[in-house]
Inverse folding.
């Protein structure tokens, strides 16, 4: 069982108070009774001695004033049971070789008192003897006083002690409760506040009016929470900044790398080159872009390319096609990686159709504004590639292989605003798209190669 | 010569008788006691009343004043004589007698004096006081006649 601070303080104070209360209840009355009894005995002894002295003077000096005055005092005392003159006689045996001390009551007050000359004190009476010796008589004064007053006094002391100990206990209980409450309340408040701070609530503050150690602790806690709050705020801001920076970095990374490759690069610090059995590579290139742009400034050229390529980006993103790079006014992308799929030829052709339509649309717009429009060639080929990252600075995701080269040759062999595809791609998509055979054309490095224009999807 | 001797012897014998008579008379005078009292005390009383008063059996006079007994100490001739003749007790018996009475609060104990003058002064100044002396010439106290006699 775990005791709270309040309980501990209360129990400690109660233990002290109980000890004090027990002291008042038992030890103090005992001591008082002892003193009372001692005083009582002493008082009675003094009476007896005074009477004995008075008797001695009376019998030797024939002066009875002393004994009379002493007896007046004794007789007036309500506690008196009896006062007697006990006469001691020595009784010798017949041959006078041994004797016996015989005590007899000479006179008593009150007269009818039944006095035993050998009486001793008991619970009800205190008996005191004071000897005297004269030529006339040897004996002692025996004085017996009632203990009723002592018993009454003792009872009063016990009652007073019981009341006092009860009051002390009550006061101690109140003080203990007050102390426990006053000490534990701020401690409990500190505990609650600390628990809330632990849960992330840095608005906690402990209000204390005391200037003791607990007050100082509360102030220190409040200061600590403020500092923690500021530190956390700063950390949050920094974290936010870092998160933002990381997000930008990730976005930037995703812009230049496929998400899977970017994740592999972040996780392992490197991205291994990967072979893809079948992907579809798209190339676009604006016809006579350099010649047309000769009369324009760089900003206008970049803005114009940005407009086209942004739309190309949007289109290929729709078909889950990976943009590889732009080289001047050429745009290269590939379908079927980094996650291999079986729809990449169709995705690529669909995207190429939309890109072609986009170029048409933009050309019309420009011409409507009295500007010269751009035409673009599009080439597509399907085949295997190797994809990966090379270099350590400004690395870029790229693809290599004969498929890339062939796709580029398809673009070069294409015509403005036409989609030129290889025979291998045609064999895959021919059932869904309207295509026209162009025949076998001479391609640099490849010789005579069959090519097809894709016009659009077949109407069912 | 013979007559002269006879007359001398007669005178000597008479003288001795006379001296003896005188001595007897003197001794008889010394044994006599006089009871004196304050004005509160009756001028006459009989022997029984005197004995009763002196033994503490009568505590007040007729006028209400308290009886105070004044005695010569028992080691004086008068005191000794008082014990024997008026109390019919020895000195020790007298002391024990009054100790017993005083102890039980029955009487005020007698006051004992060493000299007649002190006793006379006490009697004259204490209302209701009665004392026993051999003789007195004091005018401030009166001699109590016991059974019609001044000396007992």
């Amino acid at each position: 069982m775990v005791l709270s601070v309040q309980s501990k303080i209360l129990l400690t104070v109660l233990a002290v108070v109980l000890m004090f209360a027990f002291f008042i209840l038992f030890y103090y009355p005992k001591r008082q009774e002892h003193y009372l009894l001692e005083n009582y005995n002493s008082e009675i002894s003094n009476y007896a001695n005074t009477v004995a002295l008075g008797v001695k003077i009376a019998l030797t000096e024939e002066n009875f004033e002393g004994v009379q005055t002493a007896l007046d005092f004794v007789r007036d005392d309500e506690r008196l049971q009896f006062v007697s003159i006990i006469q001691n006689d020595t009784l010798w045996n017949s041959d006078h070789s041994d004797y016996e001390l015989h005590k007899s009551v000479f006179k008593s007050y009150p007269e009818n008192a039944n006095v035993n000359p050998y009486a001793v004190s008991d619970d009800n009476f205190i008996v005191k003897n004071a000897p005297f010796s004269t030529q006339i008589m040897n004996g002692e004064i025996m004085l017996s006083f009632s203990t009723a007053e002592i018993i009454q006094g003792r009872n009063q002391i016990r009652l007073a002690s019981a009341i006092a100990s009860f009051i002390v206990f009550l006061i101690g209980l109140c003080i203990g409760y007050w102390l426990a409450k006053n000490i534990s309340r701020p401690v409990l408040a500190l505990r609650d506040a600390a628990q809330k701070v632990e849960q992330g609530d840095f608005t906690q503050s402990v209000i204390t009016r005391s200037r003791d150690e607990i007050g100082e602790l509360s102030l220190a806690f409040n200061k600590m929470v403020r500092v923690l709050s500021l530190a956390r705020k700063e950390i949050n801001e920094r974290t936010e900044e870092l998160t933002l920076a990381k997000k930008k970095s990730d976005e930037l990374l995703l812009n230049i790398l496929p998400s899977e490759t970017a994740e592999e690069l972040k996780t392992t610090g490197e991205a291994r080159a990967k072979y893809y059995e079948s992907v579809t590579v798209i190339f676009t290139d604006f016809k006579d872009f350099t010649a047309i742009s000769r009369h324009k400034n760089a900003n206008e050229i970049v803005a114009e390319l940005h407009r086209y390529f942004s739309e190309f980006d949007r289109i290929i993103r729709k078909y889950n096609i990976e943009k590889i790079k732009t080289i001047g006014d050429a745009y290269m992308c590939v379908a079927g990686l980094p996650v291999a799929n079986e729809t990449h030829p169709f995705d690529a052709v669909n995207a190429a159709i939309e890109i072609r339509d986009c170029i048409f649309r933009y050309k019309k717009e420009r011409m409507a504004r009295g500007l010269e429009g751009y035409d673009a060639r599009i080439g597509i080929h399907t085949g295997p590639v190797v994809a990966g990252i090379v270099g350590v600075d400004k690395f870029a995701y790229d693809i290599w292989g004969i498929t890339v080269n062939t796709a580029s040759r398809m673009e070069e062999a294409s015509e403005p605003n036409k989609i030129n595809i290889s025979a291998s791609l045609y064999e895959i998509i021919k059932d869904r798209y309207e295509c026209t055979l162009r025949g076998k054309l001479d391609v640099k490095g490849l010789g005579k190669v069959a090519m097809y224009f894709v016009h659009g999807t077949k109407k069912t | 010569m013979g007559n002269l001797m006879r007359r001398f012897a007669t005178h000597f014998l008479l003288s001795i008788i006379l001296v003896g008579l005188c001595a007897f008379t003197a001794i008889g005078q010394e044994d006599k006691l006089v009871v004196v009292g304050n004005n509160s005390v009756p001028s006459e009383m009989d022997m029984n009343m005197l004995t009763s008063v002196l033994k503490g059996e009568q505590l007040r006079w007729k006028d209400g004043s308290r009886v105070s007994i004044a005695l010569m100490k028992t080691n004086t001739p008068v005191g000794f004589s008082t014990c024997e003749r008026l109390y019919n007790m020895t000195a020790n018996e007298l002391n024990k007698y009054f100790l017993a009475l005083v102890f039980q609060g029955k009487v005020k104990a007698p006051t004992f004096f060493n000299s007649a003058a002190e006793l006379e002064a006490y009697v004259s100044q204490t209302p209701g006081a009665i004392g026993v002396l051999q003789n007195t010439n004091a005018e401030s106290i009166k001699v109590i006649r016991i059974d019609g006699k001044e000396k007992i």
Q: What stands out?
A: Residues 82 and 132 of chain B are 7 Å apart (CA to CA). Residues 21-29 of chain B have pLDDT under 50 and may be disordered. Residues 2-31 of chain B form the longest helix (30 residues).
